[in-house]
UniProtKB/TrEMBL annotation:
SMART domains: AAA. The lineage of its organism: Bacteria, Pseudomonadati, Pseudomonadota, Gammaproteobacteria, Alteromonadales. Residues 316-535 form the ABC transporter domain. SUPFAM superfamilies: ABC transporter transmembrane region, P-loop containing nucleoside triphosphate hydrolases. This is Cyclic peptide transporter. Residues 1-277 form the ABC transmembrane type-1 domain. GO terms for cellular component: plasma membrane. GO terms for molecular function: ABC-type transporter activity; ATP binding; ATP hydrolysis activity; ATPase-coupled lipid transmembrane transporter activity; peptide transmembrane transporter activity. It is found in: Cell membrane. GO terms for biological process: peptide transport. Its main location: membrane. Gene3D superfamilies: ABC transporter type 1, transmembrane domain (1.20.1560.10), P-loop containing nucleotide triphosphate hydrolases (3.40.50.300). The chain crosses the membrane at residues 34-51, 109-129, 135-153, 216-240. It holds the Pfam family ABC_tran.
Length: 535
């Protein structure tokens, strides 16, 4: 602000100097003062140049620093948020906010400076006008205020249209990911491709309409502001003389000053659309941050971040555990539970059940990805409360049905190259892929092969509990047998506990415990061959 004021003042001084010299040009030449004014003129321009340059660099640095902080903050908020919150917010909104909205703010940084500097220039030039003629100053102020109020009156409509275009753009991202993620399915079906394109075009048209309306409102504002400005300058020669009899002495100075206002006023009015877009973008960023924080347990997680792992357990107990999904149409929201269950260390548990019976939901409850809405999980006699939930989650490693294979082995640093190579060979992937510097050489593989690499990642993590959601479904019969008859026993031998959703009834005898999920209830659970747990 200080730099903005100095540069605005210097800018106004340039006007005062030129006005002064041009008015007294013959006297100044006669008295040989021209050099003095020239030095003053150069000095003022230098001050303006230096402060303006510094102001713009500083502002860019500040804005980029704020954006950097926001970007990391949102990434962290997403990382700390709960899965249920993420499901509610939606990926598109997060993508759109982190990419487009932050970029919009970044691009407006220099413009904020120009607007700020123009405001200070208008202020000092107005002071200059007021010093020469208070009546002229009043007339200009009234006209400027009138112009500003017209803009304010339409601010709500502008904001509504901007929000509309943000929402349409979120939908566009969703349609685009439908096209890219479902490219194969789209290529196979012309009607699907047509429908998807139709929806995309509709959303694009909605975004275009909202944006055009906003731009039209801005354009009208711009023209009105120019007319207001011309009216103000016209008033200097047509109206003010009839209101003030001393005015004729200063009319040239005041009119020149008012003409001098055209640059900054144009910058301010021309900058309003970008300023409003950036403000709207900033509000979207902050709203996302709020939504992420509101339902997240971030404060707890941060307090207990140092508890990064629980190294083992003997017994895990579910006591009346219950979770209900948010209502999303349909007859009633789906719920799982209440579930009572004991899981002992080293036990292999198979879970079966029909589609939509709640197996995945149960696994998410078990792993702490869904916060229980009733009941509790007890780990070696200690209830799993919010304060140890992160640590509790670190008991698990999983290959979910909708698994994501990370090319880089994030968080896996302690395994020797020899161990990694041995496992790669055991999983029959060593001829296809290698691991170098903590990264797979390639992940462009078949689904079954990608699943083997995901399995490798979990094996290298060596967590106490392994979760597999229909892991073997994509494997050939030979490797499927290897998974049940060699991989699972190897894990068990290491002391790992395994909980696997599976429909491979040929291998049910290998489980210590077999559970069955029916409509959100663990209806049937029995010990296999006398081994295993007391449910
Ligand atoms: N995020 C969600 N929001 C609302 N309802 C959900 C959500 N996820 C799942 N459901 C509902 O919960 C029910 C159980 O889903 P779940 O994925 O747990 O079943 P599943 O037994 O794993 O099924 P499948 O064998 O088909 O994978 C389904 O009826 C589904 O509609």
């Amino acid at each position: 602000m200080a730099l903005g004021c100095i540069s605005g003042l210097a800018n106004a001084l340039v006007l005062a100097l030129i006005n002064n010299v041009s008015e007294n040009i013959s006297d100044i030449h006669k008295e040989n003062h021209i050099l003095y004014y020239l030095v003053l003129f150069i000095l003022t321009i230098s001050i303006y140049g230096l402060t303006q340059q510094r102001l713009m660099t500083k502002a860019a640095k500040m804005v980029e620093k704020a954006i950097d902080r926001l970007r990391v903050q949102i990434f962290e908020s997403v990382r700390h948020t709960e899965l249920s919150t993420l499901e509610k917010i939606g990926k598109e909104r997060i993508f759109n906010t982190l990419s487009k909205e932050l970029q919009t703010i970044s691009q407006s940084a220099q413009l904020f400076v120009i607007i700020g500097q123009s405001i200070s220039l208008v202020f000092f030039t107005s002071l200059y006008i007021a010093w020469h003629s208070f009546v002229a100053f009043l007339v200009i102020s009234i006209l400027i205020l009138m112009g500003a109020s017209i803009h304010r009156l339409r601010a709500n409509e502008i904001q509504r249209n901007m929000q509309l275009s943000f929402e349409s753009e979120n939908k566009l991202i969703q349609r685009l990911s439908d096209l890219l993620d479902g490219f194969k399915e789209v290529k196979l079906s012309v009607p699907r491709a047509d429908d998807l394109e139709h929806e995309f075009v509709m959303d694009s048209t909605r975004a275009k309409r909202a944006k055009t309306t906003t731009q039209t409102l801005f354009a009208t504002d711009f023209v009105l502001s120019q007319i207001t400005f011309f009216a103000a300058t016209g008033a200097m020669v047509f109206i003010v003389p009839s209101l003030s009899h001393v005015y004729t002495d200063v009319v040239i100075k005041v009119t020149t000053a008012s003409l001098f206002l055209i640059g900054p006023i144009t910058s301010i009015v021309g900058g309003i659309p970008i300023y409003t877009t950036a403000t709207e973008a900033a509000q979207n960023v902050l709203a996302l941050e709020d939504d992420l924080k509101r339902e997240s347990t971030q404060s707890h997680n941060q307090d207990h971040e140092h508890v990064s792992h629980v190294h083992g357990f003997e017994e895990l107990r579910f006591e009346g555990a219950y979770y209900q999904h948010a209502h999303k149409g349909g007859d009633r929201p789906f719920f799982v539970g209440p579930v009572d269950l004991n899981i002992k260390r080293g036990q292999v548990t198979f879970i079966t059940g029909g589609n939509g019976s709640g197996k995945t939901t149960f696994i998410r409850m078990l792993t702490g990805l869904y916060e229980l809405q009733a009941g509790q999980i007890v780990l070696d006699g200690q209830p799993v409360t919010e304060s140890i939930r992160d640590a509790y989650r670190s008991l698990f490693t999983a290959v979910f049905a909708d698994f994501h294979l990370f090319k880089q082995l994030y968080g896996i640093h302690h395994n020797s190259q020899e161990e990694i190579d041995d496992w790669l060979a055991f999983l029959e992937m060593n001829t296809k892929v290698s691991v170098k510097d903590g990264e797979f050489s390639s992940i462009d593989l078949s689904t079954g092969q990608r699943k083997r690499l995901a399995l490798l990642s979990t094996i290298l993590e060596n967590r106490p509990i392994y979760i597999f959601d229909e892991w073997a479904a994509d494997q050939d019969p030979i490797f499927r047998r290897k998974f049940y008859e060699q991989v699972l026993p190897k894990l068990k031998e290491r002391g790992n506990t395994v909980i696997a959703i599976t429909h491979d009834d040929a291998y049910f005898h290998l489980a210590d415990v077999h559970l069955k999920m029916v409509e959100g209830q663990l209806m049937e659970h029995h010990e296999v061959e006398g081994k295993g747990v007391t449910p």
